[in-house]
Amino acid sequence: MKKRYTIFFVINLFFSALCTSQDLAINEVMASNDSTIQDNDGDYEDWIEIYNYGTVAVNLEGFGLTDDPAVPFLWTFPAYIIQPNEFLLVWASDKDIAEVGQALHTNFKISSGGEDVILTNPEGGLVDQVPAVDLETDVSYGRQPDGTGDWLFFYTSTPGVSNTGTGLTELMTPPIFSHDSGLYNSSFDLTISHSNPNAEIIYTLDGSEPEQSNLAGTSFNYKNEYPLQTTDSPGPLLSGSYISNTYTASISIDDRSSEPDHLTTKNPHQFELITPIDPVRKATVIKAKAYVDGIASETVSKTFFVWAGGNPYDIPVISLQIQEDYLFDYNDGIYTSGVDFDTWRAENPDNNQYWRPEWSNYWRRGRDWEYPTSIEMFEPTSLNVVMNVNGGLRIHGNNSRARAIKNLRLYARSEYGGENTFEHDLFNVTIPDATLPNNTEFKRIMLRGNGSGGPVSYDVVFNRAMQPIYNGVARIQPAIHFINGEYWGLTAIRDRIDEHHFALNFDLDDEEIAIVGCRGVNCGLDEGEDADFDDYIAMRDFILNNDMADDANYEQAASLLDMKSYIDHMVLEIFSANDSYERNFWKVRTPVDNNYGDGKWRVTVQDFEASLNDDINWLGHWADPVNSSNEALLSSLIDNTDFQHQFMNRFADILNTVLGTSYFNDVVNFTFAEVSPYLVEDQDRYPKTDFYDSAEQSTLLSWGNTRPAAQREQIKNYFSLNSILDLTLNVSDAEAGFVRINTIEIQEETPGVAASPYPWTGKYFEAIPVSIEATAFPGYEFSHWSGDVSGTDPVLNITPSANMEIQANFEAIENPSEVVYFWLMDSNIPNDTPLTGLDATYASNELSATINYTSCLSGYPFTSDDPEWRTASLERKNSPTELNYVAEANNDIPYSADIMRGVQVKQPFRSGTLENYLEFVMPTTDLENIKFSFAVETNGAAESLLIDYWDGNAWSTDNLSNATESVPGDYEIMEFDFSNVSIANNNPDFRVRMRFDGADMFVDNGDEVRFNNIALRGESTLASKEFVQQNSIKVYPNPTYNFVKIEASHELKKLELFDILGKKVREYSVRGTQKQINLEELSAGIYLLKVSADGQHTTVKLIKQ
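Structure (tokenized):
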């Protein structure tokens, strides 16, 4: 769907006192310029066209353009003389250039959210303004005739010249289908309609773009036979075609699977054409658009699966519609060998390497060989459509391009009439340690179902095994894809790991990301500037040319290269015995934070088809200093003792978890089980080798059984260690806390750690120091260590010399402090709305707590037409912070900046005798030792917070040690301890007031004080309650495909199921201690099951497969 933008104008010409402004007008505007015209820098910026329709030249000096009615001279013109009948283009680019002789650029952009754009004369008189309209990408709004005419929509805009094209009084809307894309059990009649009775609807059934100009059809040439040898016949040119149709009557939608194939009869490479013996499964694809006065609407694409037997696929289905000649045209098709192969054959009669992909059309790369396609994605089982967008398509890969079923890249671009990103949760797993773990936007999508260097199953398994702990590999989701309604085979949706991937998932600027691609010994710049490659070389050479045994040198190296990322990629390469070393180094050019934007190089890896080559000791190979410069980093880094220990311990941690036999083999079996139901149909479509054969599964399972031990022996021998030791870790109570060793938290949620993990045994290396830490769960505290160690410090650093047994002991805290009330500041708070209060989003005692807001301005809250609108107000503010965030008060969802917001109190803070204040009403029934906390910051609106409480008769600060606190410029946690305030205990009417103070509280500069993560904690005065989380609650099987059973030692009251974003998807009433629930209809992924019993709650992470 095309993106629409709202801009505000008023058709109203105010006559200025100066005659020089009488004949000026805003003549044409564009709020979303994606491909219409470039500015002087080559950027596609929005623009405003000014037209002098008078007979006198006008000096524009001092005229103002603005998007804010309150600031009419936000940007002012220089002394530019606009001549009669001149069209002046002003770029709304935020570049702020106002010099005669240069292209003019405002210091603002036209917001897609809607705002005024106003032209004002130097005396402040309004010259021109236009009403609110929705504009699509690359559609302008202009006058016809110029300067004085009515406003029309122009699909062919004319920046800088007269509006002579065809304009419409309304935007072109797309045609309406009577049925949506998806699965149908029987045939039906499809109708297509339009709101404009004068619209002509054009449609296609072959994937081509519906065009009025193609009602007679268009022919193209293709070939199915190629001369592999110079003596072979060149093969005939064949003819194909595509055609558009005028809609005049309903269209019968049937199961077309028995019809003869069309697309599968065209040869995708230079080798012999192999066609399916029987017709492939089919869908009906339809594209349609409406025309009025020769102007077309956006295209609507639909896919209809009419299968009486239902959907045979339990994995996603992708339907691609693309004009057939884009794929198979002899001269321009990118899915065939075409003219490029015949040209190579004629020019190289003595070359017998006809199998190489470089000689064929399908080797063509880059933007010139990206073609428009319609993309629909359907959910498993139900086949409900979850994504329907237009995008670009290219062939992906190197040698794999020669395969019959090719790998593809899909590109999101607004120029195709869609969004700039694909938006859908494509994978059931998140990216580990991602700054934005809940991101569902993609600029690129890979459809890579096969490779060329060996079995693709090897690549899938090693990526999947490592993915939960290493963000340098791709996520992979098998899928079925159709092209123009014909079954095309198994593929796999994958992350396209490029600059957009890093930007969207790690909250970075994609234009600031540099990527250096390395294939074996060769490295080159994939993305960025020449200086970025120089920076990579400088990092590499510093490590190679300096003694890394020197800690100062190593610290410098660690400031250039992220060692954890480097070690993880090396662990995977060595363990997999991969003979195809393909990796990328990436970084942010200019550091912006201390996380992934810190400017350090990090490593991603790909292509593990050529794995399992155990005839080489890969640790010794990569640690060999004779390697080429681009492959020798490990040989230098390993000279440093700290790096050695980090490398060995991380390797040991991973071998004890995701690359251990149990987890690795589970990944192998799951990977093959997921695709095995579809292999017969895939092979019938086109026979493949090295494609999920049962022998591959056996080989991988054997690797999982033997490789971990062999790998440990290689490490032991390489570093001349004496032995491999068993470290057994235990806890006194599994519900009281857990233990971390090095980088592993021994919890069942940790990938590679078994359910009910204690006692847990891991294998580590003698004389290599390890770190062990005990962490208590809420309601407990760490007491001491026992077994082969002792002490009360929760952190242990030990150097094992023999097998060891270590136990962390915990004790229950009597009447522990707990979060009683919490205010989650997320997008559920209405935006741009003055608030009078906020209810707590979490209450552990099932009582109600609220914030009441009083403004210093009488009449608050105001409406949008009031001059006091959004002043002295409490409002939502997009200012997230992790400080004081409490996951347990948000269904145990980890903090994520992309779902968090905040609130603000805006100036002025006083008016007359009135002041802004917040009153927190928080019943403390059966509670004591009350503590009130929140995160706060300001941009200068106030200097101090004044806190008091209601003592039953008046507001008081007695026994409150910090009743006045300074407000920081950046978020800090403030806590107010009411432990010594007796009236705060067991008080059903406990109230706290917050006021503000500073040098001038009457001023209004638009500043504010911002708050987030407000919480009240307290200790129960009742006897400690045992709850299911602290005693026994069983949820099994977990993971599950359908049914889950919940068993508890206490009577259950309610079960609530939330998705990973906290949205409730199911609720169940329960009576008794057992309940079975059916999750079969839910999408695969991670869910949170909240269990309520006896006024208490616990949340269990649940994995639906």
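The first helix runs from residue 324 to 328. The radius of gyration is 33 Å.
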